[in-house]
């Protein structure tokens, strides 16, 4: 029996089938993703490493080359692109479209962890993310306040917002732009240092040896056990200004405040974020290389 004859003989059944087709078609249309371009994004993993104070050539030989050699043999790897600049290394890995991005990121973490001990001691640990770190974030959220300073806004964003954005589905990374992290800055005065006979090496040595927090062990009894914590001795500007560098020839103590100006300021003074002419703190949200931009936004 042909479709036309069946439709004429049984019109009620035909109408029911048509209604079902319309309903299921409408539901399928509602669930279709919306994209500006076809889903042709390749799985991408980036490895970013910060090495403050190092030149681009040093970053290239000490960090970038080691990371490239470690990840070169990962399964499904298509291309490797690296960039070395003053204080920062970035290695971008593109995999075949058939490679699962989560498995690729785990392989990258495993390979990079094996050469971490070979990186410079002053370099930060490499950050592995499932996106191209050289790309532009899909969403930028700006924070401003009439009552809080940029340093306080940075602390608030780091404590309460960044982690909550990072765990959203499709989000690869949430980073702070123009962040003003609190730090103790020591501005050395060469004239006062020369008068006291103090060198930069003397100050650096004292800071490394004194500004530490060592474990205190524990106190045990038959019924109780207490963990002993030795509080950090230096935490405020006044504490650091009172830090003893050494004793002078006449027996007086030479303190850090005698040869330098100690202030509470931003860790990086050269970076800032402005919107509408006003300084503020922003959070840049980057999507995973295979995520839907509209859904993430």
Describe this structure in words.
This protein has 297 residues and is an alpha+beta fold. It contains 10 helices and 14 strands. It has helices at residues 3-9, 11-31, 56-71, 101-115, 150-166, 190-196, 200-210, 237-241, 256-259, 293-296; strands at 44-50, 77-85, 88-95, 127-129, 139-143, 171-177, 182-188, 215-220, 225-229, 244-247, 253-255, 260-266, 273-275, 278-287. The chain has a 4-stranded antiparallel β-sheet with strand order 2-3-1-4, with helices on one face. Strand 10 and strand 11 (253-255) form a beta hairpin. Helix 1 (3-9) crosses helix 2 and helix 3 (56-71) crosses helix 4. The chain is elongated.
**Distance linking N and C termini:** 52 Å
- Please describe the biggest sheet, giving its number of strands, its sense, and whether it closes into a barrel: 4 strands, antiparallel
Category by helix and strand content:
alpha+beta
Major beta sheet, strand line-up: 2-3-1-4
Mean pLDDT: 85
Q: Count of DSSP E strands?
A: 14
Compute the number of helices: 10
Residue share in β-strands: 25-35%
Provide the helix percentage.
25-40%
What's the order of the H and E elements?
Answer: HHEHEEHEEHEEHHEEHEEHEEEH
Shape: elongated
Give the C-alpha Rg.
29 Å
Unreliable stretches (pLDDT < 50, length at least 5) are none
Oligomer: single chain
């Amino acid at each position: 029996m042909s479709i036309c004859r069946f439709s004429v003989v049984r019109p009620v059944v035909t109408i029911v089938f048509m209604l079902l087709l319309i309903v299921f078609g409408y539901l399928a249309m509602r669930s279709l993703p919306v994209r500006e371009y076809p889903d042709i994004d390749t799985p991408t993993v980036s490895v970013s490493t910060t090495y403050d104070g190092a030149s681009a050539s040093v970053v290239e030989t000490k960090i970038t080359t080691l990371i490239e050699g470690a990840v070169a043999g990962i399964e499904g790897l298509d291309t490797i692109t690296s960039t070395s600049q003053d204080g920062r290394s970035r290695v971008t890995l593109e995999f075949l479209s058939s490679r699962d991005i989560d498995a690729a990121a785990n392989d990258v973490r495993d390979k990079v962890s094996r050469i971490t001990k070979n990186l410079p001691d002053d370099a930060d640990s490499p950050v592995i993310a499932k996106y191209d770190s050289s790309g532009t974030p899909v969403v930028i959220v700006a924070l401003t306040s009439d009552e809080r300073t940029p340093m306080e806004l940075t602390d608030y964003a780091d404590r309460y917002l960044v982690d909550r954005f990072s765990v959203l589905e499709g989000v690869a990374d949430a980073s702070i732009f123009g962040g003003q992290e609190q730090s103790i800055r020591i501005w050395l005065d060469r004239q006062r240092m020369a008068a006291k006979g103090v060198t930069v090496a003397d100050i650096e040595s004292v800071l490394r040896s004194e500004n530490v927090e060592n474990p205190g062990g524990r106190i045990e009894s038959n019924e109780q056990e207490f963990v002993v914590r030795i509080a950090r001795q230096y935490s405020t500007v006044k504490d650091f200004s009172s830090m003893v560098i050494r004793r002078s020839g006449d027996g007086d103590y030479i303190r850090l405040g005698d040869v330098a100006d100690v202030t509470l300021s931003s860790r990086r003074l050269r970076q800032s974020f402005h919107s509408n002419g006003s300084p503020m703190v922003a959070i840049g949200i980057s999507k995973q290389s295979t995520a839907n931009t509209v859904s993430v936004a």
